[in-house]
Design a protein that fits this description.
Structural class: mainly beta
Shape: globular
Radius of gyration: 14 Å
Number of domains: 1
Helix content: under 10%
Strand content: over 45%
Number of helices: 1
Largest sheet: 5 strands, antiparallel
Length: 117
């Protein structure tokens, strides 16, 4: 799985990751980020790059209601499309679809299926 480096994730999420094992390199580790977007939405993002996996949980900060859960496997690449205070967006690519996720200002998902022969 092709992903941005750890510094770019720190910038995007504005949070330090909780690593499963501090002695394992980032790519082979499991990194968990917890952050809010300032719009009453809280996120938990768990990545395991060497397994090509990402889990994203979105909650209402007010009620702790689950707004969305993505548990994704077989990811080819994750790109950061926007990393500004007013807009944060990522793009996830698999062999079958492309998903764009807005984290700031509000949580939104856009998905396109790819044509596969």
């Amino acid at each position: 799985m092709k992903i941005p480096d750890e510094i770019k994730w720190l910038s995007l999420f504005q949070a330090e990751p909780q690593l499963l094992d501090e002695d394992v390199p980032y790519y082979y580790n499991q990194a968990k980020y917890e952050f809010t977007n300032g719009n009453h939405e809280k996120f938990i993002v768990t990545m395991t790059p060497s397994y090509s996996e990402l889990k994203l949980e979105a909650f209402s900060s007010d009620t702790n209601e689950l707004l969305g859960l993505l548990d994704l496997k077989n990811i080819v690449a994750i790109e950061i499309l926007a990393d500004r205070k007013e807009e944060k967006r990522i793009m996830i690519t698999t062999p079958y679809w492309v998903m764009k996720i807005d984290l700031v200002p509000r949580y939104k998902i856009f998905m396109n299926q790819l044509l596969v022969d």
